Amino acid sequence: MTPARRLAIGTVQFGLAYGISNDRGKVPVDVAGRILRAAAAVGIDTVDTAAAYGDAEAVLATLLSDLPAFRVVTKTLSGTGGVAAVAERARLSAQRFGPSATLLVHSAADLRTGDGPALWRALIQLRDEGRFARIGISAYASDDPAGLAREFHPDIMQLPVSILDQRLVRDGALATLKALGVEIHVRSAFVQGAIFLDPAALPPALAHASASLTGFRDRLARHELAPLQASIGYALSIPEIDRLVVGITSAEELAEIVSAANGAPQSIPWQDFAIDDDVLDPRKWQTT
Fold it and tell me: What value does the mean pLDDT take over residues 201-206?
């Protein structure tokens, strides 16, 4: 498999103005179509979406009617509305994408509530009914992904891994998941675009990360690497990763990412770039 074929297209920007460095807003439908056609042309076969991504599912379903070769990974609504509501909304996703799609629990925290076992049984039932080909879990490092995999036996797990956040590589979680037969999809390689921002001119939500990002940029300079080269190169250096989900806002952006993937640098001491705190956890940006 060529490096670019390990990429997957993240579609949150197809439905929402998402990302701390996204100054383009929501991706127009015609641009989303160009992105998907360009992705198909280089062999990318997976798209990632979710019920919570605005109207991204609806946009994607319309566009994929002309691009049937893509595998779709979508995610449940929050479990706070009850298991029945989650299952009902998941059936709409199944109608949109057909039985080859994958359904993930969007928040692993939903599996740790009193309704967690019933929620997982509902996903198993949807798979057994033939509405989805595979089921899985989207989680954070703090959710104990290996423990979740041992307990629930998902087909796929989606996790945040980046050149800055290497915890799941260092602690052996990715290796454990692979040994358990779990397909591994990784998100947040760009930390919502934070790695591209000037550390001296960060938005208020990220001001607390200035020192960490400055140190990261200094290390990039010593190795003569650009942020895009480094982030893609690191993720593709990890053999356990099956798909790297990247958010795209234009076909030109996709071309840059594909070029970075196909020319990923070798023999770099990637461990030197890790940040050992959680200042770049997006869940903390509004409260730090």
Answer: 82
User: How far apart (Å, rounded) are the C-alpha atoms in residues 249 and 251?
Assistant: 7
Q: Which token pair is 141?
A: 């490092």
Handedness of CA 195, 198, 200, 202 (dihedral sign): negative
User: With left for phi above 0 and alpha for psi between -120 and 50, is residue 135 left, alpha or beta?
Assistant: beta
State the greatest distance between any 2 C-alpha atoms of the chain, in Å, as a whole number: 54
Q: How far apart are alpha carbons 93 and 99 in whole angstroms?
A: 10
Report yes or no: 50 and 16 within 8 Å, Cβ to Cβ. Answer: no
The continuous run of DSSP H or E covering 247 comes out as: strand 243-247
pLDDT at 71 over 90: yes
Is the model's pLDDT at 192 over the cut of 90? no
Query: What is d(CA 90, CA 103) in angstroms, rounded to the nearest whole number?
Result: 8
Q: Give SS3 for 26.
A: coil
Could you tell me where the DSSP H helices lie in 116-209?
Answer: 116-128, 145-152, 167-170, 173-179
> Which carries the bigger pLDDT value, residue 206 or residue 254?
254
Burial of 190 (0-12, 13-18, 19+ CB in 10 A): buried
pLDDT-derived band at 286 (thresholds 50, 70, 90) equals low
Condensed to tens digits (0 to 9), the pLDDT of residues 141-159 reads: 999 999 999 999 999 999 9
Q: Extract the tokens encoding 220.
A: 């990039």
